[in-house]
Structure formats: structure tokens, C-alpha cells
Amino acid sequence: MAERSWQTLMRNASHDAARLELLELRPGLTLRARGTGCERLARALELAALPAVNVVSRGASGVMVCGLRPDEWALLGGAPNVDALRAAVGDEGAVIDTTASRVGLVLEGPRVREVLASCCALDVRPRVLPPGRCAQTLIGRAGVFIAPLAPDRYLVACRPSSADYVVRWLTDGMALVR
Hints:
Gyrase A, domain 2; 2 domains
């Protein structure tokens, strides 16, 4: 498969301020649930409850569960049993394979928050958005969700169609804070 232009950009996306890398988000699932379907999904993921909006939990097999909306969660990575999740939610929701609809980028480094501040309006300081939280925002005009993985390490997930645009914004931000 041919390399995309944003992947070429990323090879050179390392500055003193921050470094940008691709993160494999396989599998990627979107969960929609209501009522008792939420409780059954939480049990299937070995969680006490599904995370609230803008909260991240780690489920069974290392899966990252991000609360996107009151009835929607993104599951990233790990090895979830998709059939068990579909059986758990039953007719009170859906389990949708969104692996191909998200690109994961990891931005890390000593000035990562300054880079993000140059690209989006979200306050990413640790007291506002600490590890264990996530938020949806815009980088430029592209919708993304951001989740701190560690104090100087952030996951930025976007649609593949906007990956080139987001990578360009982030690399420009890295150049600004050199």
C-alpha cells in the first residue's frame, strides 16, 4: 500500500518541543447503548460502569473506553470480544466496527501542551484534562478527540480523511514552539 502524505510528514515530525507518532487503534469500536444495555456492556468489559462523558477507563484485555456522549463510547485497542459485546448489548444498543474510521496520533514531549494550545482551543493543562479524561475538540477545522496518556503524552484521534490536515496543523504547531 502506498504511503499517505501525512505519514511522510510524520517521519520528519520530531522537534525539541514534541514528537508525533502513529498509534495503532486496532480494533476500534463504537458502542451505543441505553438502559440495561449499558450495565451489560460494562460487565462484558469488566468495568463497574461505562465511563461518563469525557472520562477514560481501561477495560478487560487492555481496551481503552472513552466516554464520547451519554450513550456513546469509543473502544480503542486491546482485544475485546466483539461477539460477546454484541450479545451483551442485545437490542438496547449497537457495537459498530469503526477501526477504519479513526487514525491515532501520539503527540509527546516537554512542550506538548504548548503545541496543542497553538492548534486548538481546548485547555489541556493537567489540572483541567488529566490522564483518565478525554475531550472532543477541533484542531483547525477538523474534529478530533484528545486523551492524555501521561503528563507529556497525548492521543489525538481523527478521521482518516482529515489526518493530513491534522498532522499539518500539529507539525506547524511544533515548529512554532521550537
